[in-house]
Design a protein that fits this description.
The complex is a heterodimer of chains A (about 350) and B (about 290). Chain A is built from 14 helices and seven strands. With about 350 residues, chain A is of the alpha+beta class. In chain A, the strands form two sheets. A five-stranded mixed beta sheet of chain A has the order 2-1-5-3-4, covered by helices on one side. Chain A has a two-stranded antiparallel ribbon with strand order 6-7. In chain A, helix 4 runs parallel beside helix 7, helix 7 crosses helix 10 and helix 11 packs antiparallel against helix 12. Chain B folds into two domains: about 120 residues, Up-down Bundle (Glutathione S-transferase Yfyf (Class Pi), Chain A, domain 2), CATH 1.20.1050; about 150 residues, 3-Layer(aba) Sandwich (Rossmann fold), CATH 3.40.50.11810. Chain B has 14 helices and eight strands. In chain B, helix 1 crosses helix 14, helix 3 packs across helix 4 and helix 3 crosses helix 5. The longest helix of chain B has 17 residues. Chain B starts with a strand and ends in a 19-residue tail after the last helix. The chains are: A alpha+beta (about 350), B alpha/beta (about 290). Chains A and B meet through helix 3, helix 6, helix 9, helix 10 and helix 11 of A and helix 2, helix 3 and helix 11 of B.
Amino acid sequence: MNLKLELTKRKKELMSTHKITTQKVNFKVFRFNADEDYLPYYEDYSMDVTSEEVVLDILNRIKWDHDGSFSYRRSCRHGICGACAIKVNGRSTLACKESMTTMIEYFGNEMTIEPLSTKRAIKDMIIDKGDFWKKHEAATPYVVDEIDETPELENLLSPAEADALNDADLCIQCGACHYACPVVEINEDFMGPAAFAAAYRFEADVRDGDESRLTDVNQMGSGVWDCVKCFECAEVCPKDVNPIEKIGQLHNMLFQSGKAESNVATRHAVGFEKSIKKNGVLDEGGLVLYSEMAGIVKHVPVALKMFSKGKIVPPWGITKSQNLDEIQKLVKSSTTAKF
Amino acid sequence: MEKLKYALFTGCTAKQSTPEQMMSTMAVAEKLGIELIELTEASCCGASHLQDYDDFLSLVLNARNIAYAEKHDLTMVTICNTCQLNTAMTKHRLDNNADLKAKVNEKLAEVGLEYKGTSKVTHFLYAIIDDIGLDKIKEMVVTPLSQFNIAPFYGCHNIRPSELQNESHDKAENPYNPTSLDDLIIACGGKNVDYDEKNKCCGFHAELQAPKTAATLTGNAIAGAMDGNADWMVTPCPLCHLKLDTQTHHASEAIGREVALPVLHMQQMLGLALGCDQSTLGMKHHLTKVDFV
């Protein structure tokens, strides 16, 4: 059988087994026009949604069938331009890639459609993403290198060197992780997961010679140490970049490069190794003391209350792990980092 | 039915700052007829901070902990979300990367151990839901908590990253609409409170380096539960518990509103419903007074 016939047969088979289902979904849609409205409001739409549709189809249907003034960004329709990220029931979603079936599995048949950040809304789903781009730029998101202006060869990565980027190069800057990050929401200075993933992508590139990028992200208050490790970014990324993994790798790079300054965050990480070496288990009080140094005083009021409730075990009261010699031997032989 | 038996990885907190969690785990296990073999050889899981310093060392140490559960040929149960994350993440990485597993085993061989990948790793909450079942638990309730509105607080590391969920227990939790703790509250006869913060972060892991961020997240969580008309909160994670129970002063200051609610460990709630002697549940160790028992 020729290939064309074979494909037609397979398509028919697929069509006969693949059932398209339809169900009613009620949408509450965020509406706001910064030029005209004092406050945002929500409009209700009820639609029959098929199992074949993606979230972008719903946005299109709102605009085309209900209200031509409804505004949102869209371009490639193929999960590559990063323009159409919005929030469905508070979850960042790349509208052109996310199937409505998955959304119904997650949230049932009542959905709220909002822009990535309601406080940054300009018109409906369109937001001012300026903070995102400013932070992304701060990560020096390009290869820094002295190169010949008229090179004769391309400066290519080997497959192994490309693998070391660990998919960080797949980021499409859609902002889904940035506006899902609870720290970005609270702390305006925090660079956010996308900027850190970009910093990792270029730090891990063997062609890069930038000296300051790693130091730039190693700031207290805005840098990699303020991540709360909630994994929201990893969960929402439409390209599986896994930004929190890259944040961890930036932490590792800081120690490996010797650029990790001694501060409460770095000592907190190192303190675990010290404690494990000594006890197998953690000495919680000792860890806070080692991390905070003189800053320990601010913890005293709560510590006293905890002590009175039997929640603080003194160093001599800690039950060490059994076979501690094994742990100590492994710490000695497996340690790869220095501080 | 054969008696349920698990290898218990207590983690560090249950032995130090949340003694009530250890007590209530043992009390509840006895009521449910579960035998727990404590892995006394286990080290700290690294709490995702050792991982920031030395990733490979954290893999070796966590693989060693799992190897001890494998020696008993038992499922490892954890009672801390962060222990669950770091142990399950180690298992996930080693089971999916033969080279990495070989490198780790090279180190473990130095102390006569081997990580095989034969033991499942699951949180106690999911172990009892999967292996005993909510219906059976409901039947065993002697003191229904019917007069209480209870706010579940899931804790990040039990529900995210969701890929670990599929490997850790029978019915993967939906990170955006988790149900296990709500279901347990209902099985205990209580009324579950729905609120936006129930699957959000408590801020624990940034408490030292970003105290304001951490306290704001804690404050938002308690405020959300209070606005949902909760009488108290319940969590499967001792680290969330520490934030929500002991840091109310900083949390109130951060969000500009007085917030405080009694916070129970999942085991304490279950213990109350199953009729455990209250002295075995350790409520006296809480900073925010548990005033309803």
